[in-house]
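Sequence only, no structure available. Ideas?
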Amino acid sequence: MSEVKSAFNLVASAELYPTSLFVLNQDGMVLYANDAGLDLIRLSKEDVTDKFFSEFIDENDKFDFQEFLKKALFSTETQITELDIVGAGNKYFHALLTAKPITSPASAEKSCSISVVDLTFLKMKEEINKQSEIRFEKMANTAPVMIWIADVEGLFSFVNRIWLDYTGKKIGEQLGMNWLKNVHPDDFESLLNVYQDAFKAREAFSAEFRFMGANETYQWMLIKGTPRLSDEGIFTGFIGSCVNINEQIESEEKIKKINAELTDSNETKDKFFSIIAHDLRGPLSGLAQILEILVIDYDEMEEAEKIEIVTEAAKASNSTYALIENLLEWSRIQAGRISYEPKLINVYTLANVIENLYNQNIKNKGIDLNVSVDPEINVFADKDMTETVLRNLISNAIKFTPQSGSVSVTSESNEKYCTIKVQDSGIGMDQKTMDKLFRIDVSHTSVGTANEPGTGLGLILCKELVEKQEGKIWVESKVNEGSSFYFMLPIKQPEIK
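Reply:
I predicted one. Tokens follow.
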């Protein structure tokens, strides 16, 4: 009995131990069993003491038990196993056995303590939970939104079918923190901060981010998460959803863009009309003053003075008329009332017709106008629009070219476009001046080399007309080295997209 007392003393208050406890010697014989152990197998102390514990082990598990006992007796580490126990009336139950070696200075014989836990109810609960998880998985996989579950560490443990369909990934590639690989780099840090803060606080959260799909394009998602609690109120992680809000975000962005464009357009047009009013006021005021002088002092004027005043009045009226014509043309474009009838037109023929319009201007300034356009080139464009552009550019070139200068009209083409170049040897422009061209929100008018007035609207009109025809216009220039204006038009009818 010294072995029993020694082992019992080492177990320490075994009767108060809440778990079933048995003490075995190195042969596997029961030296001691506490009340909880006896209740578990429903046998008395007499029925158990000095019996081999293997008698209470299911036949199929006896070999595993013997191996387990050897490790428990001769190892310093705790041993754990699961076996079937046979109690009174040959009633079986599945149990968790935990064994620890007992060392006693009073005896050299090995012994160990074994605690036994009935796993029957735990297994039943596990089975119920497993069935619940299966039902949940079935429901989640038929849900119309992406569903996810994360554990207490924030690691994904489940994503549903629609999540996998969207990402084109296998489930293992989305669990843990792997799903974050699909998050847009610009959204990664902010999303991760929201996600981690929610887990620390164990509070519900939501966030918007871009998520890459199977086609390797990003779409906007709204992720939401809610803490999960067990029946005992213990935090077990999060459950949440991801809803595709890409169309909503894109619609909002389009509305913002349209509103911004409308605001910008209204502000620009208000400024533009203010500029036009200023440009109209100047020549009309000058014309009124000239005519007033002519009326008051007509009888006292020399003939040469009368001719000079009438000439100035003609210039002012012509400038005003040109401005109003361009303004009306521009307003028709803005209102969509200008007719656009593209067809194949010959650039060479068009350039020569316009050249004839400026014969008198060329003679007055002694300018050499050279049209060197490929006679075989045709462009798919509106004849009236293209003529207006070319007329404005040639008129400007003549205006800003001094006496005995030169103006040339040339062309280059490729498979898709024809580029027409109007070059002059005039006064040229600096970069600051060029930046103001083609803009309706800045005032820019220049006087020609023979004091020809400008309307300030011709190049804006050119830009509108060229772009309406799927073309492009630009300028290159240096001060005192002349200017080159280019505009590009399609050679063939653009394919309908």
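The chain has a mean pLDDT of 80.
Hope that gets you unstuck.
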